[in-house]
Structures are given as structure tokens and as C-alpha cells.
Amino acid sequence: MRRVKSAQANEIRALRRMKDRDIDTTDIPPVLEFLSLPFVSEFVFRNVRTSERRKQEQVADFLILHRGTGILVEQKCQEDPSARTRQKAELWARKKAKEGWSQARRAFTRRRDFPVWCDHPRQGHVEFRGGLPPIQHSIVTVEVFQPVDLQPDVESLPLDHDGVPITYLSVNDFLNLAVQLRSVSELMDYLAARRTLPPADLRLIGEEKELFSFWRQRTWSEQSCCRG
User: Fold this and answer.
1) What is the pTM of this model?
2) H-helix or E-strand containing 91?
3) Which residues, in sequence order, are CB contacts of 131 under 8 Å at separation 6+?
């Protein structure tokens, strides 16, 4: 797995600060570019929003459709990762992970028939008049370039909500998983296998490389045995 280039990370942060009207969707944003290539751009939607009490609210940063269900992705990026010490970066990551989960929780607890809309690189403005599709998984991503243990905030960072798994990853690890796995089905298989880890390990972000390598080797071995 490789680290996201600094220029790409800067573009991601700049995109998060921009208003929707200022975003040129003819130049696909970096995260959408990362996700769309392996997952097929038709199934990746950005900036999922709704309106409540005449006020527009964001539901999720990304929605990935998969066989009639959805994966919600919340993303938290730093203004300047190099500006924080290692200790301050860890505290920031723990705080933002809780914010990401809080936003995901609001998406779960909204009325299911509330219309939502989002942006798509080809279709532009897309509406889901019947509300969000059934959510199969939620992923909270936080931009850190060091391992961070979220276990001190265990009470504020659940691993599921009414049976829907919640996964915590660094932004870099999630983007690399998207590139390496090449399909939503493979991503779901990996996330399902990852759920067999002890709860404490599921709250450790920024150290996905060894885990992914082990899973990939085991998957290849099982496939070889089946073919044999």
C-alpha cells in the first residue's frame, strides 16, 4: 500500500473547504478519482445532503452504491498535517473520529423517507426521493500519517449501529484499499474479514498495510487450493 502524495492530500483538503457552487465537477476531485477508478464512477456519489426545517444539512461525504445498498463514508482531513506534533496529531485524530461517527449516526437516525441529494461526476445533481438506500456499512476516515489508537474513546466510538458495521480507517489506508481491491465486492469481503479482529484492533488506525497483506496472501492461498 502506498502513501497518498502530498499534492493530492492538499487538493483533498482544499476541496473540503470549497462550497458546492465553486467545485468544478469536470475535473474529478482526487478522492472521487481514487474511488471511481476501482469502483466504477457510476456508483460513487459525493456530498450527500438533505434539508431539515428549511436548513440544508450534510448527510455524508460519500455514498457508494452496492447491489441496491449503500456504504456511507465520512472523511476528516487536516488543514496542514505537518503543523502538529505526533501527540497533537493523535488527539486531533481521536476528536475527528468522534465527529465522523456523530455525523454517521445522524444519517442512521434520520427518517428513512427523507429525500436526499448528492453530486455525481457524470450525472451532476442526483436525488434519492425515497431517502438513503439501506446502509450496509459505514466507514469513518481520518487523515493521519501515523498509527493512532482510538481505544481511549471506546465509549464514543461504537463498532456497529443497529447491526450496521462501523469501520475506522486513516484516509490514506482507505484510498489504498480502494485502489488495491478494485471492486466494492472485494472491499466488503475485506471489511467482513477485518471484523473478526478483537475490538481493540478495530479501533487502531494507520496500520492497515500488514493486515491487508496477510488477508491478501490468505485469500490467494485459498483460491489456489480451490483451483487445485
Assistant:
1) 0.79
2) helix 86-109
3) 110, 111, 112, 113, 114, 115, 116
Query: What is the spatial distance between Cα 149 and Cα 159, in angstroms, rounded to a whole number?
Result: 14
Q: What's residue 162's pLDDT?
A: 92
* pLDDT digits 0-9 by tens, 171-216: 999 988 888 887 888 888 999 999 999 999 999 999 998 888 888 8
Residue found under cell 476516515: 141
Contacts of 121 by beta carbon, 8 Å cutoff, 6+ apart: 25, 28, 32, 36, 41, 44, 46
User: What Å distances lie between residue 216 and 1, 201, 221, CA to CA?
Assistant: 12, 18, 9
Distance of alpha carbon 43 from alpha carbon 57, whole angstroms = 22
Q: What share of the chain is helix, strand, coil (3-state, %, to 5)?
A: 45, 25, 25
Rounded to 5°, angle at Cα 26 from 144 and 47: 50
Q: Which residues of 134-145 are buried (b: 16+ CB within 10 A; e: fewer)?
A: ebbbbbbbbbbb
Burial pattern 212-221, b for ≥16 Cβ within 10 A else e, equals: beebeeeeee
What's the CATH fold of domain 6-227? Answer: Restriction Endonuclease (3.40.91)
Cα–Cα distances (Å) from 191 to 51, 93, 181, in that order, read 31, 21, 11
| Residue 22 · residue 47 · CB < 8 Å | no
Pairing of strands 135-142, 164-170: parallel
